[in-house]
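Researcher: Let's continue the batch. This sequence belongs to 5'-deoxynucleotidase, and it's 220 residues. Same format as the previous ones, please.
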Amino acid sequence: MLRKTPRSGWIFLGTGNEDVAQHSFRVAFMSYVLAKRAGANPARAALLGLFHDLHEARTSDLNYMNQRYVQTDQKQAQLDAVAGTGLEEDIVGALEEFEQRESPEARIAKDADQLDLLFNLKEELDKGNAFARDWIDAALDRLKTDVARAVARQMLQVDHSRWWYGRVDRRWWVDRCLPEAEQKTKRAVPGTMRVRPRSERNRSGRGRAGRVVVKARRRS
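Model: Same format as before. Here are the structure tokens for 5'-deoxynucleotidase:
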């Protein structure tokens, strides 16, 4: 159900969308990374992040505006969600730990929850939604750990697409031609294949219009 349950806050921002399952996976991933950096238990932090919104399979996701008017029995929803699985004690205990925020792992997982929101808001800001700035400021104020604040500061300084677009030589996007230094690196890695530039690929095996020429075999 979590992958069919939308995160409802985006309708107020006007852009962006995700479901609770996507959010939970990203929070678990970030929790693990943050815990490793902070010297906490990464497996425990990831577990807390993975299950932190499990109750929303029953209650749906209530955004900040909804929560002003609607109250849900979150604890009962958690119990019902895991009833009969044999995992009741482990998962409900983890969710209680997450809500109490007393352990380092719980504080990290909660900050990962906010970091996921911040990463998404930065993407919407980069794509032109100026309203995301106010949301970013509020989410930053909710961060409690130094490790999460450091990640947030670094993330906000770069465009969200830099990891895949800004760090690749422009010639790759024109002709899929890598710089010579990068070609040497790829050739040194076993199992990698160099993509030939279009100019090389057109020298053989193609007709005048760029169509592949297939030579028929004679039957013996």
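Researcher: Any comment?
Model: Residues 169-220 form one domain.
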